[in-house]
Fold this protein.
Amino acid sequence: MTGKRYGMSIDIDRCTGCGACMVACAVENNVPPAPEGATDRKGITWMRVFPVDNGRDGPDRKSVFVPMLCQQCGQDAPCVSVCPQQAVQVDPATGIVGQMPERCLGCRYCMAACPYHARYFNWWDPAWPAGMEKTLNPNVAPRMRGVVEKCNFCHGRWHAAKERAVGRGAREIDPADYVPACVEACPTAAIRFGDLNDPRSPVAQAAQQSGSFRLLEKLGTEPKIYYHSAREWVREIGRAPAGKEQVHG
Amino acid sequence: MADEQQVIEKPEPHEILAKGYTFGTITDQIAAVVLTKRTPLLWIVGIGTGFALLNLLLLSATLLFAKGVGIWGIRTPVMWGFAITNFVWWIGIGHAGTLISAILLLLNQKWRNSINRFAEAMTLFAVACAGMFPLLHMGRPWLFYWLFPYPNSTTVQPNFRSPLVWDVFAVSTYATVSALFWFVGLIPDLGTLRDRAKNSFAKYAYGMLAMGWRGSARHWSVYETATLLLAGMSTPLVLSVHTVVSFDFTIAIVPGWHSTFFPPYFVAGAIYSGFAMVLALAIPLRASYGLEGIITARHLDNCAKVMLATGMIVAYAYIMEVFMSWYSGSVYEQQAFWNRMTGPYSTQYWFLVTCNIVSPNLLWFKSFRSKPALLFLSSIIVLIGMWLERYMIIVSSLAQDYVPSSWSLFHATRWDWATYWGTIGLFLFLFFLFVRLLPMISIFEVRTLLPQAKVRQEVKR
């Protein structure tokens, strides 16, 4: 199981902003409900859908929904080098930028360094309403107060898929066995997931499509989340305007 | 002492030591602060304020550990706030002490002799305050020791690519060398206090600390070598510590941080704020303890000149920062600076420009530099300005960076302020304790300024 580069393609034109991906993500990954007094700046949402518009008024106003999650940057992800505890590492077998809360000291350097603001801090000890803790996903450890967490492409599901592959005696994961919760939950199939290194995978093909782009791609962070829109203004907003020269080459 | 009666034919320029001093009177005056002099009102007010604020620190730290960093105003995207601002500010203040004690020693600047002791103490206490903030800042401060590379069962070592790990080494080295340098420098004076103390407990305590100092030729020879070695070790630290601190920002790709000129900019800023603190401490101390003959107008003038020079370097850095953001062609850099100057933090920005660039220009005038009250005011303004500079760099850069949907402003809570004022309390408490218990001016080094101490040079001539 080597040489994979898991990635995602998100078709903005298909996203209705229903938020099913956010709910599915929170349930799958044991993200607790926000406590009383939490704001949108202190809550934890590994996946978050932002409304974006073209800045015009009246009939010219156009808007879309952009699901934001960890962009799973390449080997030189901005969060990896700054972490003093090696709590963030890019898995060479999958390309997934892994977050290990057990190692995290909570210095939040990764959060300051992440240009996408796709990382979240546990301000409080996790708490679930009475009875709800019985519904926790046994494959994912809840995090404690004072550590950072983020999307890891449903790492628990990846482990489960590996176990199934081993049970079958196979060396490779069956792509159908490893599908993140948000992909599964999206009613319009706007989100696709797979190995970007496999040219036959739908996600690799979607990444090559015209109209496909990555967020702030001029920063050189090599994200593995590809967005797609047929509309030019959406692509313009998503890409980094680079000025005259490439930014932070 | 017979030598006190000698005629002073070629006195040191009395700008750095008032006329009429002898070996005996210098020792008397400085030792009296600790041993016999009546405690002045300044000391009681100073340590009282320090103690009250220290309790505020204990209260806010207790609440912080109990409830977590959520009691502070930080939130996405401003995940670094007061704690890192205060860390950089305190570390910067410490730099002046090391510069005075090490670099000026190597450069044979005699005027340092009257101010190096308390400036070094200031360094130590400032580093103590600074060192607390990264720990308070952490989500899980009880695991701070993970930052050190030690053999452990998980085989996981700190990430040596992270500037925070560089900070650990830079700051702990700085604290260790500064403490050593300060203590070694104290030994001859501790011997003096031991010999003069009337109280048996004081005699015993100073005796223990003096480590058997007898002032023999061999002791002095070893002492001189040790001091020079420690000065040599401290000198690069003056430059390296704040350089490493600046790397915390330059390594991240945040607009407003990601810049190669941060190291010299930060070092100059550190010395600038450090000298401001030296003046802010020296001026009231010399007045209340009647030490104007030892910490003279010349000392204040020289400190003010260093402040002016470093202030001008900082001004140049501000101008270059804006120029580079424009010249980079990066819309994010340009936007970051435009937001600073015209956005929600513009009041703070222009206030800090006034404090750090406009106000020090008054120091060009000798008539301004010769008035201690004005210098005191000027140094407080610079201290406020330098704190705001760090606040601006950290908070405004994070508040408005690449993704406008994440933009959000920072609002400090009462616990942010309580922690900050609490460390000022810790600093004041430690400093006034030092003033009361140890000689705040180096007795034996000031004595070397007297012509009687120049025997060898006279003989050579």
In short: DSSP finds seven helices and ten strands in chain A. Helices of chain A lie at 20-28, 78-82, 109-113, 155-168, 181-185, 202-208, 232-238.
